[in-house]
C-alpha cells in the first residue's frame, strides 16, 4: 500500500472557506476566505487563475457548481446569493431574492438542479427557483422551525426532501415541494403529497451544535455530525427512524460524505479524513484514518493527559499503542489545519465514489483516491 491516498495537494491560498469543481473537473472554484471566488483551470502541468468573481461584499460561505447546467451559485455573509452563468469568457451574476436579515451560511443545488437551498443565520432556509417571466431567481422560505443558525444542507435523491443541521443541536428533514417547479407523482407518492415547508422528521440526538449532513445515494441512510465528537447514522428517516450514535476518540468532524451505502468519510478538526463502515447487520464503526501517519512516542504531559482522558471515556484507540501521540496532532499529513469541506469527484461503475477532494483552513485543496487504499463495502 502507498503511504497515503492523497494523490494531489494544491496550496491555493492561506485559507479556503469552501470549494466546488466544474462538471468536467477541469476547473475549480473556491473562496480564499474573503468576498471573492477564484476560478482556476489546469493547463498541462500547473493551475492558472482564469476568473475572479467579485460581487459579494463579505466572506463567501458557500459555493456549488451545477453538473448539467454549468451554473455556479454563491452565498455570503452579506445576506445575498448570486447565480453565475458563463457567457463567452465572462461569468455573469444574477441576484437571488433571499429576503434574509442575517448571513447566508451554506448552499446546495438540488439533484435535478431546478432549485437550490440556502441555509442562514436567520434561523431559516430559502428554497430558490428560477422564474422565467421575470428572469430572476426567487425563494420560498421555511421559517419558524429552526431555533438557531442553519449550518449545513443535504438534498435527498428524490429532489423533494431536504435535511438541515443547526446550532440548536437538531437535524431536521423538510419537504420542499413547490407547485409548478416539482411534478406530483414523479417520485415516491409520500414525498410529492407533502406540502412545502412540512417537517418530515426532527432528530434530537445531539446536545451540541451539529455540522455536516449527507444522505446515502439511495436516500435510506442519513449521517450528520455533532460538535461533541459524535457521528449519527439514521435509517428510514421518513417512516420509522432507527438511529446509531458513534462516539469518536478524536476531535469533532465538520463534513461527511457517503462513498457507498455502507462506507462514509468524515473530515474535520483532526486534519485527517476518517473512514467509517457498516457491517452486514448495519452496525457502524470507525475503521481508520485515511492519511497514514507514523505514531511518535509521547513525552509531553499534554499528550499524556489527552491519552488519560481518552481512557476515561472508554474509547479504545484502534491500530496504535497507548503511548502514541493523539492523531489530532498533525505529523506531516496532507492537511495541516481543520478540514471544512468534502466534495465527491469520480464514481466507479458500481456507483461507489472513488475520488473526492477536501479543503480547509490551511488553504489547501487535496484530491484523494480510494482505489487500492480501502475496501469499499457496498
Automatic annotation (TrEMBL):
Repeat region (WD), residues: 53-84, 143-175
GO CC annotation terms, alphabetical: Arp2/3 protein complex
Pfam families recorded = WD40
Q: Which UniProt keywords apply?
A: Actin-binding, Cytoplasm, Cytoskeleton, Repeat, WD repeat
Q: Which InterPro entries match?
A: ARPC1, WD40/YVTN_repeat-like_dom_sf, WD40_repeat_dom_sf, WD40_rpt
GO MF annotations, alphabetized: actin filament binding
Q: Where is the composition biased (Polar residues)?
A: 315-325
Report the locations given in the UniProt record: Cytoplasm, Cytoskeleton
Q: What is its main location?
A: cytoplasm
What's any GO biological process attached to this entry? Arp2/3 complex-mediated actin nucleation
List the residue ranges of the region (Disordered): 314-333
Instruction: Name the family the entry cites.
Output: Belongs to the WD repeat ARPC1 family.
Q: How does it assemble?
A: Component of the Arp2/3 complex composed of ARP2, ARP3, ARPC1/p41-ARC, ARPC2/p34-ARC, ARPC3/p21-ARC, ARPC4/p20-ARC and ARPC5/p16-ARC.
Role noted for this protein: Functions as component of the Arp2/3 complex which is involved in regulation of actin polymerization and together with an activating nucleation-promoting factor (NPF) mediates the formation of branched actin networks.
Q: What is this protein called?
A: Actin-related protein 2/3 complex subunit
Q: Which organism is it from?
A: Panicum hallii var. hallii
Q: What are the top taxonomic ranks of the organism?
A: Eukaryota, Viridiplantae, Streptophyta, Embryophyta, Tracheophyta
